[in-house]
């Protein structure tokens, strides 16, 4: 609509000129045009529910969703898997809509309805045309507050989730990272998997599902997010209409209190040797930073300096980082990926490596950790600038579309209490220097305990003590 209107205005202007001008046309000096800044607005309702929007007046679609500060971390050992189980059951019928009616209603709007569960959040969201946003909010409140959780549906989904669990177990990267969390945060909520153990999936009851909703789906732990063509005040009014009866505060159960306790990072390793897998798949991590840590963006810049590598790519020999050059020149790995994973009060900063050069596994690990040591005292301006440029580009490119923007708004507000604008993030990244990176590395990497998770043909991986000794290498 906006583009057609622009074309129409331009055509009218051209027709006016064709009829002749009363004064000679002269081009004046160009003047800067300032469009109104697109900002994130927030409102907190009386019951504590936060409503956050990023309104784009020219967007013709919107994404609305509920971000909940509860995931697998809010469970107990006995109920691990409940949050993910609930996500599956949300679309199986409510007291107002059967599953068929729910699916048909979404289909008739041409909308998309989805959900996902992570270790700390559960998210339900819909994307639709602007005029259908009220109906989408009605559907969201219905599945969040009125899900029937019928026994027959629970039994059907139990089989679906068990099959999903089997599929996840075939994805080596998922297995490695689940074990990495399990060993780094042993016997703590953050160390549990999202799907839960198979015995829990088989045994989860309706009572446990109802209790999880009662204990976690409360206004103080929820943020209703809108991105796109939905004005802030309109979404606030919808929230007041549909979510005013949400309980204000979560009961402080032992599981809740434990989920809010900062976990201890434990230097340790877990190894699953399976020589039928042709590769060694290894993740190594130190304790990283939380979402709100002052070093959050410095950690991301340091991660970008270490970089990523994939031998299958045509530019494999020119992927920028020093480590990728060493790995490629010596043919040490199929691929590696540096990562900085953050949670509300901690994080994991590390590297995930895959290699079929089984006799060189120790060399691959050695050079990766040597690169970590280098960050503590020998970082150049050029590589920091490259890393910063890559980081800014990836952040801005990840905000393409209303769903991506809603995800960014919801995640930031749930985890930190406020949303930083892309401009603010860009300024923070621009200010990071080589000195900041080296200070971060000295604090978080140099001679620090590590967690190791390894799966596959890992006979060539040295023992923990030998690998740990490489964390304080002088060149």
TrEMBL record:
What is this enzyme's class at the first EC digit?
A: hydrolase
Its predominant location is mitochondrion
Looking up InterPro entries in the UniProt record yields: Metalloenz_LuxS/M16, MPP/UQCRC_Complex, Pept_M16_N, Pept_M16_Zn_BS, Peptidase_M16_C
> Where does the record say this protein resides?
Mitochondrion
What is the protein name stated in its UniProt record? mitochondrial processing peptidase
Free-text function comment from the UniProt entry: Catalytic subunit of the essential mitochondrial processing protease (MPP), which cleaves the mitochondrial sequence off newly imported precursors proteins. Preferentially, cleaves after an arginine at position P2.
Family the entry assigns? Belongs to the peptidase M16 family.
> Per the database record, which ranges form the Peptidase M16 N-terminal domain?
51-198
One Pfam annotation reads Peptidase_M16
* Reactions catalysed: Release of N-terminal transit peptides from precursor proteins imported into the mitochondrion, typically with Arg in position P2
Which SUPFAM superfamilies did the record assign? LuxS/MPP-like metallohydrolase (SSF63411)
Q: What is its EC number?
A: 3.4.24.64
A Gene Ontology cellular component where this protein is annotated is: mitochondrial matrix
Q: Which GO terms describe its molecular function?
A: metal ion binding; metalloendopeptidase activity
User: Per the UniProt entry, what is one GO biological process?
Assistant: protein processing involved in protein targeting to mitochondrion
Cofactor names from the entry are: Zn(2+)
> Where does the record locate the signal sequence feature?
none
């Amino acid at each position: 609509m906006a583009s057609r209107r622009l074309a129409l205005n331009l055509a009218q202007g051209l027709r006016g000129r064709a009829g002749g001008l009363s004064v000679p046309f002269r081009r004046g000096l160009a003047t800067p045009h300032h469009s109104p800044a697109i900002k994130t607005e927030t409102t907190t309702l009386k019951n504590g529910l936060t409503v956050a929007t990023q309104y784009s007046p020219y967007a013709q679609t919107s994404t609305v969703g509920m971000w909940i500060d509860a995931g697998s971390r809010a469970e107990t050992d006995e109920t691990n898997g409940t949050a993910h189980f609930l996500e599956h059951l949300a679309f199986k019928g409510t007291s107002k809509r059967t599953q068929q009616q729910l699916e048909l209603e979404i289909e008739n709007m041409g909308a998309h309805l989805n959900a996902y569960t992570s270790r700390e959040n559960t998210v339900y969201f819909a994307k639709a045309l602007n005029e259908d946003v009220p109906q989408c909010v009605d559907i969201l409140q219905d599945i969040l507050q009125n899900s029937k959780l019928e026994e027959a549906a629970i039994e059907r989904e139990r089989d679906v989730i068990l099959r999903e669990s089997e599929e996840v177990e075939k994805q080596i990267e998922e297995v490695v990272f689940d074990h990495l969390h399990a060993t780094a945060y042993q016997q703590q909520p953050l160390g549990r998997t999202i799907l839960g153990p198979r015995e829990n999936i088989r045994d989860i009851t309706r009572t446990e599902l109802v209790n999880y909703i009662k204990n976690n789906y409360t206004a103080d732990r929820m943020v209703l997010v809108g991105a796109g063509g939905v004005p802030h005040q309109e979404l606030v009014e919808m929230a007041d209409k549909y979510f005013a009866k949400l309980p204000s505060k979560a009961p402080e159960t032992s599981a809740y209190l434990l989920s809010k306790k900062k976990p201890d990072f434990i230097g340790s390793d877990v190894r699953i040797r399976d020589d039928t897998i042709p590769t060694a798949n290894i993740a190594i991590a130190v304790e990283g930073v939380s979402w709100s840590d002052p070093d959050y963006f410095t950690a991301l810049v340091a991660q970008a300096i270490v970089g990523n590598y994939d031998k299958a790519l045509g530019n494999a020999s020119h992927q920028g980082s020093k480590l990728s050059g060493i790995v490629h020149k010596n043919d040490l790995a199929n691929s590696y990926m540096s990562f900085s994973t953050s949670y509300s009060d901690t994080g994991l900063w590390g590297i995930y490596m895959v290699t079929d050069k089984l006799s060189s596994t120790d060399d691959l690990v050695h050079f990766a950790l040597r690169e970590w040591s280098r960050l503590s005292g020998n970082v150049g301006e050029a590589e920091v600038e490259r890393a910063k440029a890559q980081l800014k580009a990836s952040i801005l490119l990840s905000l393409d579309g209303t769903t991506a923007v809603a995800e960014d708004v919801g995640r930031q507000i749930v985890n930190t209490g406020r949303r930083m604008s892309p401009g603010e993030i860009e300024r923070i990244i621009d200010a990071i220097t080589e000195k900041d990176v080296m200070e971060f590395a000295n604090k978080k990497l140099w001679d620090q305990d590590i967690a190791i998770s390894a799966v596959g043909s890992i006979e060539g991986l040295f023992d923990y003590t030998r690998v740990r000794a490489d964390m304080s290498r002088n060149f």
